[in-house]
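Entry 14. Ran structure prediction on the chain below.
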Amino acid sequence: MFRKQPKQVCSIIDESLRENGLETPLLQYRIINQFESLLSKEASQYIGEKTIKNQILFVKIKRPSLRNDLSMMRHDLVNRLNEAVGHFVISDIRFY
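Output, structure tokens:
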């Protein structure tokens, strides 16, 4: 009879998510929820729907001036969002 090495609960959950194909959707959900926390409260009220397709985050902006400002900060926002989640999830952000 041999003893198994104990595993941490977080590693078991990560393995289970990966095996069932739920890791990527969970990370995408975290990215979408994290996006508004990077912006100020004033800017958050002009944010519409957010979706991710093919590693690109699409964000609907209701105010053209805010859309222009955010498009200039696009690369910085991508890096900050990926760092917040801890994985490379998105490669670009498109504002419309």
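The chain has a mean pLDDT of 93. Will compare against last week's run tomorrow.
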